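To the wet lab folks,

You asked to see what we're planning to order before we commit. Fair enough. Below is the target structure as tokens, and below that is the sequence we designed to fit it. If anything looks off to you, flag it before the synthesis order goes out.
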């Protein structure tokens, strides 16, 4: 008997335990009768007895909060009891700790879409290589597509990163002028806005803006002591990368300078 176990979160994917195919209904619930068969079909472990258990009823009541009914009974020749994945695990645990652990470990080993290698996988790969190769090809293509998307995102943000890096100093902060240049901001308008949101002290924002305790405490600004060209020492506000990210996202258009295209581009 093969010990390859296939489990998946998605609906309508084939599930195998040993050499038993676990059926699913239209809403993706798994057949308890098939799981019972895969466990060895001990009569004392029939789904009927498990479903009548008080703890099972409590678990079903809790699972009903998740959306679709967790248990369904189908009549007819191909009927049976169907349950959501979480209840399948609980049923396996009720059958035996060993069986429960086997199912859980198989699920944890999912490395490809719908395939979990449990035991003796090497022989199954040799006997049925094509089913593994196709799945791996799908996974590889998904990774290629994801990498291409990430590269495109990096290209999109690269100009902003390069511009900000140009102005950032060795301590990781920028001066007010550099801050405004990197974000294309009107200096006077941004001062007023920063004062309104509580970053700049109202009594000093005009000539030599200094941050409030709030701005410093939240990591948006720092105060540096600098020496002027005349040898005088003064305090100067500097902005952190956190401040740059916040203002880029939150500042209104009214404080931003319009982007003017070059004459060459306009002529083109």
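Sequence we intend to order:
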């Amino acid at each position: 008997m093969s010990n390859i176990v296939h489990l998946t979160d998605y609906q309508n994917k084939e599930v195998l335990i040993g050499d038993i195919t676990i059926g699913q209904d239209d809403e993706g619930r798994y057949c308890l009768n098939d799981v019972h068969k895969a466990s060895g079909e001990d009569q004392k472990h029939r789904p009927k007895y498990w479903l009548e258990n008080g703890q099972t009823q409590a678990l079903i009541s809790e699972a009903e909060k998740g959306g679709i009914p967790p248990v369904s009974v189908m009549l007819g020749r191909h009927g049976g009891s169907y349950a959501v994945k979480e209840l399948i695990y609980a049923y396996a645990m009720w059958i035996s700790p060993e069986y429960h652990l086997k199912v859980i470990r198989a699920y944890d080993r999912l490395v490809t879409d719908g395939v979990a290698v449990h035991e003796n996988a090497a022989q199954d790969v040799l006997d049925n290589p094509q089913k593994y190769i196709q799945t791996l090809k799908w996974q590889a293509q998904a990774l290629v597509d994801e990498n291409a998307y990430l590269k495109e995102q990096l290209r999109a943000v690269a100009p902003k990163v390069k511009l900000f890096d140009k102005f950032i100093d060795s301590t990781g902060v920028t001066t007010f002028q550099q801050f405004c240049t990197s974000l294309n901001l009107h200096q006077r308008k941004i001062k007023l806005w920063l004062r309104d949101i509580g970053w700049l002290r109202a009594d000093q924002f005009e000539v030599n803006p200094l941050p409030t305790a709030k701005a410093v405490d939240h990591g948006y600004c720092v105060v540096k002591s600098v020496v002027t060209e005349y040898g005088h020492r003064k305090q100067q506000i500097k902005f952190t990368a956190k401040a740059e990210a916040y203002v880029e996202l939150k500042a209104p258009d009214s404080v931003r300078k319009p982007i003017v295209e070059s004459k060459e581009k306009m002529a083109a």
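Structural context that might help your review: The first strand starts at residue 15 and ends at 17. The CA atoms of residues 45 and 179 lie 70 Å apart.

Thanks,
Computational group
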